[in-house]
Amino acid sequence: MQVAWAASRTKNSSYYNKYNQLAIRKGRKKALVAVARKQLTVVWNILKYDQPYDINKQPVITAEQIQAKKKYYQKELDKLSLITITTAQ
């Protein structure tokens, strides 16, 4: 867990980004456990396949995925704009 904590604090790393994304939705403790699990998965694959760590093998978000996310969040914003807020007087 200490390694996951340090990795989640290292700016410009995939673990930092993953931690921050998950901490918003799941909370800090669960996000930390998820980062630790991700690190263990990487270590397991390195040991199993006897290959050095390659940072370029990290998953990358494609332009299509970005467009899909934009479309989804635009729909969500449109739904929210349809909801009218009334204040009790």
Describe this entry's structure for a reader.
The protein is mainly alpha-helical. The protein has one domain. Helix 2 packs antiparallel against helix 3. The longest helix has 22 residues. It is extended. The model has no long low-confidence stretch (mean pLDDT 85).
Summarize the topology.
Layout: H1 2-9, H2 14-26, H3 28-49, H4 63-82
Notable characteristics:
single chain, 89 residues, mainly alpha, 4 helices, 71% helix
The domain tally reads 1
Number of DSSP strand runs: 0
**Number of distinct helices:** 4
Q: Roughly what fraction of the amino acids lie in strands?
A: under 5%
Low-confidence stretches: none
Helix percent band = over 70%
Question: Span from first to last CA?
Answer: 51 Å
Largest sheet: none
Outline: extended
Which series of helices and strands comes N to C?
A: HHHH
Category by helix and strand content: mainly alpha
Mean pLDDT: 85
Computed CA radius of gyration, to the nearest angstrom: 19 Å
